[in-house]
Amino acid sequence: METYAKTPKGQDEIAHRTHGLGLRARRLLILVDGQRSVEDLRGLTGDAGTADALGELAAEGFIAPRGDASRPGEAGGRETHTSPAPVARANTGHAASLPLARDFMINTLRTFHGPYAKLDLVKRIHATQSGGELRRLIMEWQQSIAESRLGRKRADELLARLEEVMPG
Questions:
Q1: In this predicted structure, what is the pLDDT of residue 95?
Q2: DSSP letters of 95-146?
């Protein structure tokens, strides 16, 4: 069960509103507690786009995947996972996660092309079952992002951010 927890950046946003999140994103960030699943959050918000919004918050560094929420965190903030633990990336504060990487790719495509463009690529990204499958789509994703002027400017940054969360 995919759950998310606030990062220090997310906690700072709640406390000080330093990053100017919109009302909808801020409300969702407040609800993220490391215990609630994506489905639980969708039920609380009544928003069918909750998974996408969580992907955006994660891509911006406000939240990070937590793992299996069926067992609360142990002393010292460590979690217990029933599946293999995500691989921590050096000094990024993010962990490798196929759902997070997929969400990042899909959300950036929607950001630069709108919700209905690049649907074939979005569907193929969504259907991936492994990091290897997803990696095979990176070049096409990059080319799609670079089709927009702003995307060309941010292409290197976006690729670096994707690599932070891309599973091995």
A1: 57
A2: B--HHHHHHHHHHHHHHHH-SSTTHHHHHHHHT--SHHHHHTTHHHHHHHHT
H-helix or E-strand spanning residue 24: helix 23-31
- Of 164, 167, 3, 165, the residue nearest 80 (C-alpha): 3
pTM for the whole structure: 0.48
Q: Is the pLDDT of residue 20 over 90?
A: no
Q: From CA 9, how far away is CA 36, in angstroms rounded? A: 19
- List, as one string, the DSSP characters of 32-89: --SSSBHHHHHHHHT-TTHHHHHHHHHHTTSEEE---TTS---GGG----SSPPPPBP
| pLDDT, average across residues 33-37 | 86
